Prior knowledge:
The chain is elongated. Helix 1 crosses helix 2 and helix 8 (154-177) packs antiparallel against helix 9 (187-203). It has helices at 2-34, 37-44, 48-51, 58-79, 87-104, 106-112, 126-149, 154-177, 187-203, 205-210. By secondary structure, the chain is mostly helical.
Amino acid sequence: MEARLQRQQAGSESRRALVLDAARAVFEEQGIDGASMREIARKAGYTPGAIYSYFDSKEAIYGALLSESLERLNAAVTAAEPADLSAGALLQAKARAWFTFFATNPRELDLGFYLVHGLAPRGLTSEWNQRLNARLHDALAPGERALVQLGFKPAAALRENTALFAHGIGLLLLQHTGRIRMFRQDAGDLFAQYLGALVLRAQSPKEQKTHAA
């Protein structure tokens, strides 16, 4: 009986994963507004009624895709442990981890920033948004903690970490769209330069007197 239940659960998880894979393809092709449960079901090889046993709406499917993406992001950041455990090295390792994750997985960037339907979190409930935003913050929090260790007050560390994230995402969008080529620059190199300058500034005795406020 237990073995049978395990097989049933494995089969259910496999079918759910198939629905998510199909939905990702449909969202990339049509955006969340243009997608439909019928089209997602067709892509997955199921009837529309069959996928309602897993998800009650396309928004729920989209939220599940984002959630799984953010779990992979958090795993990548957690795994980034530098040999040198100084605050500066930790900041660089954690920031490079989320930047590299999005740089090497552009479809995750699309999902994470709603780019498949036009830069707005339409269709997701406030509960979904709060949950997903919390997991994104979890991925960025190690960098913020490292900035505090470097001497920034919490409010200043949050501000600097937000600026770092905004800078990185801007570079990723330039890379993702190909616009970076017009500047003859490399997004990874520019991010590393910004990150290195932040660490040097944080470690500067003069800066220590100003960034604590």
